[in-house]
Amino acid sequence: MRYSLNHIAAILSAKAVTGDTGVVVEHLVTDSRRIFFPAASLFFALETNRRDGHLFIPEVYERGVRCFVVRNGFDATNYAGASFLFVHDTLAALQSIAADHRRQFNYPVIGITGSNGKTIVKEWLYQLLNTDYNIVRSPRSYNSQVGVPLSVWQMNMQHNMAIFEAGISTTGEMDKLEKIIQPTIGVLTNLGAAHNEGFENETQKLQEKLLLFRHCGVVIARDIDVAAYVGFAKYINSPLKLLTWGNKASNTFVVASVQRNQFDTVIILAYKTERLTVTIPFTDHASVENAITCACVLLQLGVSTATIARRMLQLQPVDMRLQLLHGINNCVVINDSYSFDITSLSVGLDFLLQQQQHARKTVVMSDIPGASGDTMYREIADMLYARNIEKIITIGTQWLTYKNVLTAKVAVTQQYLDTASFIRQFSANHFRNEALLLKGARVFGFEKIVALLEKKVHQTVMEVNLNAVVHNLNEYKARLQKGVKVMGMVKAFAYGSGSAEVASLLQFHKIDYLAVAYADEGVELRKAGIHLPIMVMNVDEAAFETIAEHNLEPELFSFNILQLFLQFLERNALQQYPVHLKIDSGMHRLGFEEKDMPALLPLLRANNRIVVQSVFSHLASSEDAGDDAFTTQQSQAYERCCVLIKEALGYRFIMHLSNSAAIFRRPELQYNMVRLGIGLYGVDSSNAHQLSLQTVATLKTTIAQLRNVAAGDTIGYNRRGKTERASVIATIRIGYADGFRRHLGYGKGKVFVHGKAAPVIGTVAMDMTMIDVTDIPGVKEGDEVEIFGKNIPVQQVAQWCNTIPYEILTGINQRVKRIYVEE
Ligand SMILES: *Cc1c(COP(=O)(O)O)cnc(C)c1O
């Protein structure tokens, strides 16, 4: 995809200003964090209700980008050598360029929509068809108004099939996506209840989805998904072939039988005169539906039944999650070895670059299955070069053949013939303080490499879902008044979730400020490569050295600490040091009170050693409607103090008062910034259920032993547990030393095993606990047990313990390994 800027300006009928419009554009970018080829990139300043891309133009320019699409009226002076295309709507411009690009290609384009299973069907079709076709497809689940044009832009002459997914959340969106994708084959996956909010009713949602198929030659759908909708044909081009599948004999593809076994499912489909029997290595309902959809597409494309059966047996689970593991010698390891192609490599590299705790980045990669010639290898070499990856390890014979392709661009550290030879020559000493991306096709068995690099610990883990953190951040951001900044509270090991990892993520997502409780926590963040401003809330004299050394910003909350800090600055000849002033507006914990103002103001007026970045206070009862009057009173006292302080200082500072609960309960108290804590971690402390937060932390362990115990026997310390019937008792690997509290003993607490809740029996011991699984069939030693997470909310566990979720989350011992996942 190489377009001159002139050509793009013509497509957009845009007025172009300055610069060299003959410059060639290869990459369309909308995210200032993902610019790898600045000289050949065109930046679209998109405006969403969350973010105005125009604000990032100075930064993007700084990084070397010289071509921009901006809204009419944007002030483009002061960008020497840059070209600007002026348009009415930057998103519409991105979409029409993609639509124009799409029209250059005549090969089949499969467009997938539906409520569930879009990404799985897309990935499975890719798995099933990539030996016959050179396929371009949406990365991950890039199916939005921005994701779709970026996906379509990847189409080129080398491909001969495209598979794109389209996701919508409100009316009017599908019309735009259809114009960009222009699918020739339509696939409708299961229509569930996702995204109902944006539509008046079910029919409207369906009609909207069907717009994707307006110009398709054929559409494949499940009978009950379309039967409910009578006017289907009206929305589609007339010579449309609607091919349905289902149990009824009137369907194009008749599901003759579905037989579930313990580990696989046998599906028989009748199509025309043919009979297709496939076995898939899955048993869950959704997988069976998705597999049938895929089989129908393949039949329709004319793939033989024998080939379909052979390939479907090999279907791999679509794990779009990238696992971030703690590795040996302080490494972090991204395990991404479920498939290997250019699209998924770029997703993995993005995630690797986010790991700012290690400057050194390493990529271990296998050959690309099915690649012919060196084109793809060249492309990969360019990608690695653009991202400054210095240490590269290849495994496989193809890479040995194309060594020169790689060495022309980047230094290859080592090459191995196969995974076995890598393992034979493996030495732990070769990996230290680095972030590694393991990218290998399934056949290379990279899980053996993962096992070597992963640090071994006991089997209780806390899984932290990084996407959920981002989702929750956005959920709150959507409730902020324009221009309000966010301070992310990452104190207490980021509420138990891991401060370096969470802070890296927040930094990547451009949060404005971070706050920690103690200076040492701030140091940890600096060591992890966090350059955001960090406020330290609980400072004492002993921490001043550390604070200054690591560029941390102290909260000054009393005359004593203020005087001591001023003296410290004086001794060290430091000037204009950034600090934060804490007001006690009614919490009575830390801070200057209103009555302290007359004494405080002269101190502030007189000095230039400190610069007050912010003045803030903390609400005592923001989650409680019963205390709203008190909250208001606090805010008034706080405002009065701010007025006085501002007058004394003579300059502006950031004002902030709200914690998570106040952000949406009291939107009028957002001032210039909010402090987001527990909400980021998925807990709505006011329990108002007005926000749709996602679960961030899942604490899980495994079953160490199972035993049958007769009725009337006793279990555990002091014989506190008694069986009332013949029972099956499981011992799980978690105890109060891990943060599984003794309150949860004697049946008070429950854990989640095999889809059911199992009560604790007897007392909780230091490292182990017994649970009663008599009523849960099929439990085995080694099975996974959820302590809290999606099935047992941490709020529930807190309730059992008569405490608040904050205490449960921050009470999980550091010996419990944290695993980070990104979907
Ligand atoms: C912890 C903390 C917060 C965050 O509170 P949440 O209820 O977790 O959002 C905000 N401000 C201060 C001063 C805090 O100590």
UniProtKB/TrEMBL annotation:
It catalyses: L-alanine = D-alanine. Keywords: Isomerase, Ligase, Pyridoxal phosphate. The keyword Transcription regulation does not apply. It is an enzyme of class 5 (isomerase). InterPro entries: Ala_racemase (IPR000821), Ala_racemase/Decarboxylase_C (IPR009006), Ala_racemase_C (IPR011079), Ala_racemase_N (IPR001608), Mur-like_cat_sf (IPR036565), Mur_ligase_C_dom_sf (IPR036615), Mur_ligase_cen (IPR013221), MurE/MurF_N (IPR035911). The active site is at K491, Y717. Its EC number is 5.1.1.1. GO terms for cellular component: cytosol. The keyword Ligase applies. Its cofactor is pyridoxal 5'-phosphate. GO terms for biological process: D-alanine biosynthetic process. Belongs to the alanine racemase family. This is Alanine racemase.
